[in-house]
Amino acid sequence: MRIVLASNNQGKLHELKALFAPLGVEIIPQRQLMQGEAPEPFCTFVENALSKARFAAEHTGLPAIADDAGLCVDAFGGEPGVQTAFYCTRFGYPKSDANNVQALLEQLQGETNRQACMVSTLVGVRHPHDPEPLIAVGKVRVQIATERRGHNGFGFDPVLLVPELGQTFAELPEQVKNQYSHRGRSSRAMLEQVRQYWLDGTRPDAG
C-alpha cells in the first residue's frame, strides 16, 4: 500500500515518516507527486487537516494522511491555534520558526500563566470523497519557557517545556520527544486505525 503524507513542512515530514515506519507501507511526501497546497480556511485543526488530506488524495489518486497542528496558549484564550505557523506575522516579523519563538516570548513577557497545549490532528482518507475519514488527535500540556533551550526539533520546540521531564522538546533526543509529543500521540492512534480499517481487509490472511 502507498500512502501520501499531505504536507510540505520538512520538520513534520521527518517526524511522520519515522512515526509511520512500523506500518510497513510506502509513505510518500506529497511534493514528490504533486505541486501546490490545500486551502486551510477553517478555525479548527480537524477541518484543515481534512481539507489537506482530500486535496492530496484528489491530486495523487492515493490514500492520504494530513496533519494540522498548533500551539494553544492558555493566556491567549487558545490562540494562536490553527494560525500557529503565521503567529509572528501578526507582530511585523517575517514568517519563520525563529521569529515565531521570538514573538511568543515577547508577548508572554511578564505573564505568570505560561500553560499551553500542543495539538496534532491527523486525518486519513482513502479517496477525496471518503465518507469515513480516520481522525486521531494528540495533545500534550506544556509550559512556555522564558528563554530558548536546546537545538533539536523545529517550530516552538525550544520553548515547549515538558513539566515531568524538566526539559524542552528541543533538548530531547528524537525518540524521547516522539514518546511525549502531540504528534507522537496522534501518530500512534492513527497507526492503529490504519491497521484496523485500511490494512486488515487487504491482507490475504485477514479473516
UniProtKB/TrEMBL annotation:
Family recorded in the similarity comment: Belongs to the HAM1 NTPase family.
Assembly mode: Homodimer.
Protein residues bound to Mg(2+): D68
UniProt-annotated binding residues for substrate: S7, N8, N9, Q10, G11, K12, A69, F154, G155, F156, D157, K177, H182, R183
Taxonomic superkingdom: Bacteria
Enzyme class: hydrolase
Keywords, comma-separated and alphabetical: Hydrolase, Magnesium, Metal-binding, Nucleotide metabolism, Nucleotide-binding
Entry's EC annotation: 3.6.1.66
Catalysed transformations (reactions): dITP + H2O = dIMP + diphosphate + H(+); ITP + H2O = IMP + diphosphate + H(+); XTP + H2O = XMP + diphosphate + H(+)
GO cellular component, one term: cytosol
Protein task: Pyrophosphatase that catalyzes the hydrolysis of nucleoside triphosphates to their monophosphate derivatives, with a high preference for the non-canonical purine nucleotides XTP (xanthosine triphosphate), dITP (deoxyinosine triphosphate) and ITP. Seems to function as a house-cleaning enzyme that removes non-canonical purine nucleotides from the nucleotide pool, thus preventing their incorporation into DNA/RNA and avoiding chromosomal lesions.
Cofactor: Mg(2+)
Pfam families: Ham1p_like
Annotated gene: rdgB
Cofactor note: Binds 1 Mg(2+) ion per subunit.
GO molecular function annotations of the record: dITP diphosphatase activity; ITP diphosphatase activity; metal ion binding; nucleotide binding; ribonucleoside triphosphate phosphatase activity; XTP diphosphatase activity
Entry's Gene Ontology BP terms: nucleotide metabolic process; purine nucleoside triphosphate catabolic process
Active site: D68
Protein name in the entry: dITP/XTP pyrophosphatase
